[in-house]
Amino acid sequence: MPKLLIVSPHFPPLNAPDMQRVRMSLPHFVAAGWEVVVLAADDDRPLAPVEPELVGTVPAAVRVVRVPVLSRRWTARLGVNNLGWRAFPFLHAAARRLLRAERFDLVYFSTTQFAVLPLGRRWWQGTGVPYVIDLQDPWLSDYYERSGVAPPGGWKYRTARAFAQLLEGWTLRRCAHVISVSPAYLDTLQQRYPWFGPASGSVVTFGAPDEDFAVARQLNASRAPLLPASRTLKIAYAGRLGADMLPALDILFAAVARVSTRVRPVELFFFGTSYAQAGQGPSTTRALAEKHGIADRVHEQPDRIGYLSALRLLLETDLALLLGSDEVAYSPSKTYPTLSAERPTLAVMPRRSVLEGLVDQLGGVTKIAFAAATDATAIARTAAVLTRLAEHGDWQPDQPLQRARLRDHHSARAVAQRQLEIFTAVIRARAATAQSPAPLV
After folding, report:
1. Surface-to-core class of residue 193, CB atoms within 10 Å of its CB (0-12 exposed, 13-18 middle, 19+ buried)
2. CA-CA-CA-CA torsion for 131, 132, 138, 142, nearest 10 degrees?
């Protein structure tokens, strides 16, 4: 039985986007006969929402080893809230103990807490156990430098970028394989490092949470609705709204301003738009809503909401929303849950973005691709789509949802199977070139 050590600092009952791939894959890893140990953080003051229902989705056969973290009561005084940094020494110590005491075939990092990724090479140096890294976001990015958008975090952003410049190449140089949600991330690595070739990484998209919708429907049956009961056409969105998504939002708001309110007014609801601490997140939508004269129809809750609540929202809304980024390589993890909900869906994104390619492959949406936030054709088409839906209940996707493709290539089961194929190949390659590991120091 192959044995896998997964490093995922965020883990249920915490709800954070970067642990969802692991959580959804675990049942399929276990069903395939793998023994799995998850190394996670035990944070007494988490920034991520706590969602106890998620614990029930983790198979009982999975052993979860939780490590303490430096408390934010103290680290916040230094401006350090990042879970990876606060857990770093404890993850290192716990993994050393595990790797000494037990035989593992592979270490798998699936997290956007990039600070912990260099531990993979350190453990490999001491034990010979190969490691695979899952890049759900780019570790080192020049987006803010290219776009001119002010980066968040000030000195913290500059420090994180300096560490990425120093450690990304060192870490990936000995990584057995890199998994990426976007082909553009792998292309960038190939351009940046001459030793990173086409065989060094694979694209594995996020998974569609089919099993999770059953839990969400049960919660909908027993809890109050998330959206108000009204005759309005409700458009809902849950998730990050960064500066990179404002051009898409600008297109949408300009279109909403053109839709008549005589028959069925349009209302927009945004949840969990900021990663800031509860109660401290700024409004992302207010300035644009005021610019277009629709502030009374836009409702925003910056605080993060639970993952299952986000699925419930998809089941309740009249029109689901996908927003693309002007960082065109960005691959939104919410694409697959949104399509799986099979609700009327509007996707607004820059041309030639990863999101445009995804919805072209999978269908199930009305696509609005724009060249700029002032794209008059895109605004007019969006307004026409919203008017038909508001006045006549008429919505037809540009092409039917490709259910078979979604199931066979992007379901949680399919994504887990692809991960296991990569893991197996790495383990076999190690066995073929096995050498005695150096002593753990």
Report:
1. middle
2. 50
Range of the domain at 24: 3-207+411-432
Q: How many domains does the chain contain in total?
A: 2
The token pair that represents 165 in the structure block: 């410049």
The answer to whether residues 309 and 227 touch, using CB atoms and an 8 Å cutoff, is no
**Spatial separation of the C-alpha atoms in residues 37 and 379, rounded to whole Å:** 49
Segment 24-82, tens digit of pLDDT: 999 999 999 999 999 999 998 888 889 999 999 999 999 999 999 998 888 877 788 88
- What is the pTM assigned to this prediction? 0.89
With beta carbons less than 8 A apart as the criterion, state whether 165 and 192 touch: no
Classify each residue of 22-38 as buried b or exposed e, where b means 16 or more C-beta atoms within 10 Å of its C-beta: bbbbbbbbbeeebbbbb
Question: 378 and 423 in one domain?
Answer: no
pLDDT over 70 at 439, yes or no:
no
Q: Quick check: is 439 in a domain?
A: no
CA–CA distance, 287 with 221 (Å, rounded to integer): 36
Residue pair 260/302 in contact by the 8 Å Cβ criterion: no
* pLDDT of res. 441: 36
Q: Which amino acid is at 9?
A: P
| DSSP strand pairing (319-323 vs 35-42) | unpaired
HSE-CB at 268 with a 13 A cutoff on CA atoms is: 24
Helix (H) or strand (E) holding 28: helix 20-31
Q: CA 20 to CA 36: how far, in whole Å?
A: 16
Instruction: Confirm if 213 and 160 have CB atoms less than 8 A apart.
Output: no
Give the three-state DSSP class for 279: coil
Element (H, E) at 271: strand 266-271
- Cα 16 to Cα 11, 27, 93, 319, 336: the distances in Å are 8, 19, 24, 24, 16
Structure tokens that stand for 386 in this block: 């919203």
Q: CATH number, domain at 153? A: 3.40.50.2000
3-class DSSP assignment, residue 69: coil
How far is residue 232 CA from its own chain's centroid?
Answer: 30
For residue 417, give the amino acid letter. Q
Give the Cβ contact number of residue 166 at 10 Å.
Answer: 12
For 172, half-sphere exposure in the C-beta direction (CA atoms, 13 angstrom radius) is 27
CA 245 to CA 366: how far, in whole Å? 18
Contact assessment for residue 271 and residue 305, using Cβ atoms and an 8 Å cutoff: yes
Integer Cα distance of 255 and 244 in angstroms: 19
Q: Check whether residue 417 and residue 351 sit in a common domain.
A: no
